[in-house]
Amino acid sequence: MKSQMPQARDRTSDQELLSRARAGDAEAFRVIFHREAPAVRRFLGDLLRDDSAADEGTQETFVRAHQRLGTLQQAEKLQSWLFGIARMVFFEHLRRKRRDAVPQDSGDPVEIDRAPGPEEVLLASEADQVLDGALATLSQERRAALVLRLDHGLGYPEIAETMGWSLQKVKNEIHRARLQLRQRLQAYLEGAA
Hints:
Helix content: over 70%
Shape: elongated
Strand content: under 5%
CATH architecture of the largest domain: Orthogonal Bundle
Number of domains: 2
Structural class: mainly alpha
CATH class of the largest domain: Mainly Alpha
CATH topology of the largest domain: Rna Polymerase Sigma Factor, Chain: A
Number of strands: 0
Number of helices: 9
Largest sheet: none
């Protein structure tokens, strides 16, 4: 019960902050940024797997959010609205990356080997590496839906709104993502035994 009261207070203050930000109050938007940027950054970091690109994407997300403040009517949908903008930034990043890729003789884009550095090797456990590898096999959209569900705790309706999907498609995609991960991890465990 106690956890519900702060959420209601946060929604009220979010509504107030949104109203003030729409009226041009830079401090109100700054508060929104400081509250929501860490979640948006984690979301983009999970999708892009590149800290610099995730930082740039977070900035771009909030620039666009500031420009489109008038389109958000309900404060309780602030986070899903921001994730929707971040999702578009993510897909634009992928399109730019593909367009800018240097073709090899085969005509395929150049793949950059992202071998972990010495610090990353020391910090990352084998299980994390296996899970990251399994996540990388998911389609970008399927991974985005799973990240929103597991890492950010969004419900299916919020994910549907963020991704622009039907509720049934969200359920199907998350189910398929979990099946794919289970198969990859099972194959790893059987190979390790």
